[in-house]
Amino acid sequence: MSEKLLTIDLQFSSLDEEEMRARSAAFAKDLARRRTVRDYAPATVDREIIENCIRAAGTAPSGANQQPWHFVAINDPKIKSAIREAAEEEERAFYAGRAGEEWLSALAHLGTDDNKPFLEIAPWLIAIFAERYSVDDEGNRVKNYYVPESVGIATGFLIAALHQSGLATLTHTPAPMSFLSKVCKRPDNEKPVILLVVGYPAEKTRVPDIQRKPLDQITTWLEADSDLK
Ligand code: IYR
């Protein structure tokens, strides 16, 4: 490390292995209970909970620590209605054919359509923007690095934080979603990437009977003694 680099103490807290095993298993089990929810109850959610979850998202690692994300948290019914109207207009064209047959058949098992009442019913919408580049104090463009990766990681943190706070989410991606920049009044250097719907599931909500791929399908182990196993 360079001599001039300012550093602080890491303050890493070690756990014993039994505790690590228990925590890793509990976390996996808790996240496995998360399901994408498309039917919401109108019950309100206190802003402080949303603030804390966005704080958690903002701790994500990012390229050159540029933190190239911006979150617009919306609970104003007028703005939610404007978003619903614009999103449904795009979705009508999408489902009427713009998506193409291959995409529509890949989606069919989820039972989605162009009707998006959750955009008005759910208490919070969080529009997630990616800063394609930054702008310095003199108005010059500054390149940001690994923007999709960084924003993806922050979004993962946000979804996990909301889930463990007791809230349901939907990663909604109306396409195209440039209308979000306008509605949220965001500058040109920011690209809307996900509209996260946040709230409580409606009573007796049912979700598609779909499964996660098992560990052996998503993992390859290259271990020192793998020949012996
Ligand atoms: N944006 C549309 C379509 C859609 C696309 C994918 I990929 C999904 O996993 C789910 C839906 C919609 O929200 O209906």
TrEMBL record:
Cell membrane is among the record's keywords: no
Residues covered by the Nitroreductase domain: 32-200
Domain of life: Bacteria
InterPro entries: Nitroreductase, Nitroreductase-like, Nitroreductase/BluB
Pfam families associated with the record: Nitroreductase
Gene3D superfamilies reported in the protein's UniProt record: NADH Oxidase
Keyword Transcription regulation listed: no
Alphabetical keyword list: Flavoprotein, FMN, Oxidoreductase
GO molecular-function terms, A-Z: oxidoreductase activity
Alphabetized SUPFAM superfamilies for the sequence: FMN-dependent nitroreductase-like
Protein name: Nitroreductase
